[in-house]
Amino acid sequence: MSSEPEPGTLRPGGRTARVRAAVLAAAGDVLAEQGFAELDLADIARRAEVGKTTVYRRWSSPTGLVTDLLAEMAEESLPRTATGSLRGDLAANARLVQRTLTDPRQGPLFRAVIAAATCDERTAQALGQFYEVRVSEWAPAVQEAVERGELPAGTDAAEVVRAVSAPLYYRMLTTGAAPTEADADRAVAAAVAAAEAGVYVS
């Protein structure tokens, strides 16, 4: 079995880091503007003002670019907001998701990646890893609520976090409209009520 890393998984520094930043920014622009089908390595190299050989050698394919882009987005996403209450923490998470999906660049970008993930295994794996990072970032909010006695022992923290964001993505994907702040608040209220009732006790 080869020990070579997957294309786009190395974490460079210095000038190489600047090349990576330029290429991933260009890839994000294309995803947001035109979708995954138009993600062409030669075009990305031109947009980023980077040699084609560099892009092909480092990322090798559009899915390599998407994998690295999602990894960067997970690394740069805002840290968890700790408010001291379960409802406050989950509301901060829901509003963050809502703002991301409403953003004129991030919203279309996520729609493009989600669409690509339905028919491309590597993109699906990269998207799954992105959300695994995000869920693990916010899971302590639920764990701390259990410790404070706000939720029953054995509550599955990851499932509660997913229950907050899932309705927001569902609304975007099924209606084509970005979720509103009211949608975010309803998702939090429903998740908290279910968690308090023991629905997510494993």
TrEMBL record:
Residues 40-59 bind DNA. Signal peptide: none annotated. InterPro entries: Homeodomain-like_sf (IPR009057), HTH-type_TetR-like_transc_reg (IPR050109), HTH_TetR (IPR001647), Tet_transcr_reg_TetR-rel_C_sf (IPR036271), TetR_C (IPR011075). It holds the Pfam family TetR_C_11. GO terms for molecular function: DNA-binding transcription factor activity; transcription cis-regulatory region binding. Keywords: DNA-binding, Transcription, Transcription regulation. It comes from the Bacteria. Residues 17-77 form the HTH tetR-type domain. This is TetR/AcrR family transcriptional regulator. It comes from Streptomyces tabacisoli.
